[in-house]
Amino acid sequence: MKDIEQPTVISTFAGCGGSSLGYKMAGFRELLAVEWDDNAVETFKLNFPDVPVYHGDIAKLTGGECMKLAGGIKPGELDVLDGSPPCQGFSTAGKRKWDDPRNSLFKEYARLLAELQPKCFVMENVTGMVKGHMKQAYLQIIATLRACGYKAKGEVLNAMYYGVPQSRQRVIIIGVRNDLGIEPTHPKPQTKPIPLKVALDGCPVGEFKYLEGPRAAIIGKVKPGESMQKYANGNYFNTIRLDPDAPSPTIPKLFGSSWGSFFARWDSDRSISINEAKRIASFPDEYKFIGKFEEQWSRIGNSVPPLLMKAIAEHIRKAILMPLSCARTACGASVIAATCLAKAGA
Fold it and tell me: Which of 16, 64, 119, 205 is the most buried (most CB within 10 A)?
């Protein structure tokens, strides 16, 4: 029997490895990561040199090839299939189009789920999918996942209650295979919000940016906790001066443009650095990012905070996988005892 102290996971839409790091912290062994973005794959390999990576389009990855790349596992053997399908089509920061083609990528995840039949799955996405007319998309996703043979339940979790110094709300859908007889549940909040002055204490500065153009002359007016929108006409909601006594707002994918983000420190007009953004996303200082500033920012903005995923993975291990292991052990002991009694009576 496989050691439950090191359950297995395959990560789809793995990005730079935020989820993977969370699973590793929780004691999981990753069998395969699936990702198509070149910079994300390079970053992942730099930090997880021993994890096999499928570098390509998930739509072209069959279940059979996936299991072969993951060490030759069979259907039903994998503990957790993890995935964060691209979510721009659901995001409240975008236009939230129902027919956005990026919204259909979850079907590729569901296809692999149906073929691999893991004990559990975890699917992460933005809260925009449960708001307004987009809630129909969320209900469609839940129905699709349940049709794969799973009990599925979604909850909105905020990373700032799981040791992450960032207010980042995400829909976390957890599923358990029907035949296992266990209801999916989510971890309860574990920590109080961490203020940035604590999270960034002693952080090596590293690379940062200054504003250019009209915003450069306005940023000095913005007080901690405010956005530039208060002082200028235009779309400046994501040009923010951080509050040292509160967690950071959600780090978006884009940096610098009017639609992107510029998070200024409370004590300077410079942006937070990549090193500081890593801390805010709960990556350790030694985690490596590569490429241009904007590429590294994008990797961090797109990632699942490792400490949030660590809490989810630990909960799954304790609330789902360990009871299953104990049930199998008890069943095995009962069979042995019955066999011994039968022999004794013979």
Answer: 16
Contacts of 92 (CB under 8 A, 6+ apart): 126, 127, 128, 131
Q: What is the mean pLDDT of the chain?
A: 89
Q: Which two tokens stand for residue 94?
A: 């975008």
Q: Are 242 and 199 in contact (CB under 8 A)?
A: no
- Number of CB atoms found within 10 A of residue 147's CB: 12
pLDDT digits (tens, 9 = 90+) for 308-329: 999 999 999 999 999 988 766 5
Helix (H, G, I), strand (E, B) or coil at 235: coil
SS3 content of the chain, % helix, strand, coil (to 5): 40, 15, 45
pLDDT-derived band at 96, boundaries 50, 70, 90: very low
Among candidates 63, 3, 1, 76, which has minimal Cα distance to 32? 63
Average pLDDT score over residue span 257-281? 91
Neighbours of 207 (CB within 10 A): 13
Q: How many helices (H) and strands (E) does the chain have?
A: 10, 9
Q: Which two tokens stand for residue 51?
A: 């994890």
Amino acid at 46: L
**Is the pTM value of this prediction over 0.85?**
yes
Which positions are catalytic?
Answer: 87
pLDDT over 70 (residue 231):
yes
Phi, psi of 55 (to 5 degrees): -100, 95
Q: How far is Cα 329 from Cα 308, in angstroms, rounded to an integer?
A: 30
Beta bridge partners of residue 8, listed in sequence order: 29
Query: Which domains are seen in the chain, by residue range?
Result: 8-192+306-321 (3.40.50.150), 196-302 (3.90.120)
178: tokens are 């029907």
pLDDT at 15: 96
Q: Coil, strand or helix: which one is 290? A: coil
Cβ atoms within 10 Å of 202's Cβ, excluding its own:
6
